[in-house]
Amino acid sequence: MMRRAIVSSFLLAVALSACQLDTKAGLGTGGNPLNTCEGGVLCDGGLSGTGGDLAPVGGNGESGQGGNAMVMVGVGGMSSPAAPKKLDGDSCAADVDCMSGHCNSAICCASGDCCKAPADCPNMIVDGIQLACNDPSKCEGSGGSVRCNNFRCVAMGGEPNDMACTTSHKANDCAPYKPVYCNGMREQQAPPCPTSCRSDDDCAADAHCDLFGACVKDMPDGGLCTMDKDCVSGHCSNGVCCKGGDCCLTAQVCQGYSSPAQCTDVSTCTGARKEAVCMANQCMSMEIPDRGACVGKLVKDCGLFADAVCSNRVITPTCATTCQVDTHCKTNAFCDRTANGGRGECKPKREDGETCTETQQCKTKCNKGFCCNDSDPNSYCCGSSADCTVLNKSQCAREDNTCDGVVQTATCTTEHRCRVTTMPDTNACKRNLSCGPGYARLMPCPLGCYCSNPLDCASGYRCSEAPDGRGKCVLDTGAAGMSGGAAGMSGAPGM
Predict the structure, then answer these.
(1) What is the per-residue pLDDT across 39-58, written as a single tens digit (0 to 9) for each?
(2) Which of 31, 117, 204, 439 is buried deepest, with most CB atoms within 10 A?
(3) Rounded distance, CA 220 to CA 210, Å?
(4) Which band of pLDDT confidence, cut at 50, 70 and 90, is reported for residue 348?
(5) What is the mean pLDDT of the chain?
(6) CA 478 to the chain's CA centroid
């Protein structure tokens, strides 16, 4: 678990100027690899702490949202700085202990044989003369009285003699090539530094022989390389030096270190994704809080109210207890805004035949105040047949001399729709009918045009016989013939 640490701007500035950040330390276990100070810092005389951690820069909150850059921080504060370099004449164990970079006979000095007193100098006597290597850089020595001058053994008052400048005396460091040494001859010159190489063996320990036959210094982390031997760390990847794994200069080359967001806890709508980052020239994965994968996931079933689901909002959703619009409810419910003291309540959608004021209240549709699956404006929904009486009516079907009428009766079907049935109804006609020239008078509906006795017919017409007593006024042809015969008879005498 990452420990939180507060690093002052002063401490961070000192740490970054004195040390090179090492992100392998403090990752996961808080360990310290080789050549690092405690706290995950490669020291050049600087900070040390206990158990370095990765801490985001520019973030906020525990998860460090807002920035991907991270630095190593040492928990435990600032400790004593690394010991300063030794001055000439101080005791030493290795060259690196000395400001001069030269340690001989456990004493720091500029070059050659180091001493604190003449007794510390090598006792080289040739032909009865004591010798000393006065200037190793030139492989020049002398005989005479050996003294300790500026913590260096020098011979004074004698003849030149280079034999004291032996193969243990470095004439030139020659970096990045191997150093060259004197040869112990009586007369010698400092050997020249090499200018080419055939293998890494021809180069200094911190250098390598490149493809062009020249020694070049091993590259630090972040340096360009072609093979492992080019790097101080001994590891080259993606053309870059680093301590191990996939090396990088930017996160663009860190393929496979990113992963999509995952919802880790639906109850709190918490999730995270991994992003590739390049830190200390090594590809790493950084976990970033991300609720995206939780969006839409069910937190709690809220009955008729809309379920509590995760969103991009930071607040964890809860179930509502009031509503103002139908979207506050599930699809099988509607918001009754008059319920719950006017605060609204989600109620089940109504079945066909139940009363309604709008379609949202029904499982199907709302038409003429009732629910049913019919939205035709000419149709009617109903709860019972009593709700269909508005459609009941009777009328005289024709405007001619007939008494044809119809009656329209509506009933409520099992689908809760009003169904209209039409039947003949002579009682629908109440007017008097003009039945034509054969009838003696107007005949009222619904009796219609018929006769039951001779008086119903006009002159020259008679009432036909009918089983039901309802005859028709037809032309009386017998009356017409009798009139013609009588006329003939009355005209005979005149013949």
Answers:
(1) 333 343 333 333 333 333 33
(2) 439
(3) 16
(4) very high
(5) 80
(6) 109
